[in-house]
Amino acid sequence: MTTDFIIIGGGPAGCAAALFAARVKRKAVMVHKATTPLIHSFNWLLPGFPKGTGPAEWLGNLRSEVGAHGFQMIEEEVTQAALGASVKQITTTSGKVLEAPIIILATGCYDRQGFIEGEAKFAGHGVFYNAYQDAALCEGKTVVVEGKNEQSMREALYLTRFAAKIYFVVPAMKLEGDEKLLNALRNNPKVEGLLSASLKKIEGENQLEQVTVLCAGEEKKIETGAVFLYARQSKPKYEFLKGTVEISEEGCVLVDDQMMTSIPGVFACGDMLAGFPQLQFVSAAQGMVAAMNADRHLCDLSF
After folding, report:
1. What CATH number is associated with residue 218?
2. What is the pTM of this model?
């Protein structure tokens, strides 16, 4: 099967790329795994949704819109990719071979390892991964933050604008980072640090109610309304690329200001550029930028 664009990934970035491709009358095929990605909830930070909307509902609407444009969606994973030639080729799990001059990578970073017990149950409605996205949902609540890097420290401080109390669970003997940042945490009366600790369980019936923390060899129960996780990092999904495009030291796909990778005609967008879940509209915007520049690149090839 030959088409103009092959879009790999069915999350916000991939769907936005597909919708742009439809508007500029490009033939495209979307290949994505038939699951809902691990994306967090939406609130006032998502333009056009002042009352928020569920992540599965929003993503379902995006995919329905893509389908309404006549896109073919192949609900499989990509197992191989040959990207060096002018016409790129991918192979799916069932053996389908697809060819196109343009590939848009949008596979995200959802290949998480080491999920905490109960995490998946409350992901997006109690368990979060980005304070700037979801802090407003924690107004007046007791919040647990797990992490040990500067990102987790900055987001814990940001959460103090909303939460009544923050337990900062640190899976290390001490926090290391900018001294001003460390002092700000130590001096904030809302933050209680738990060193040499780790989250073991997230519990609740219809909503998140408490977590179990292993601290200094003893289990501690903490009643909480929200958990923010930064200690267990996501990783981009690009095993099928097998060294084709350039990857950063942090494991993220490198692109230029056009969203093009080190291989002409291969573009990338979304969480695989960051290595962690971004704000959804950031990923969607990157998808549209990637598709826009992919369209221009395809036009240049025809001159």
Report:
1. 3.50.50.60
2. 0.80
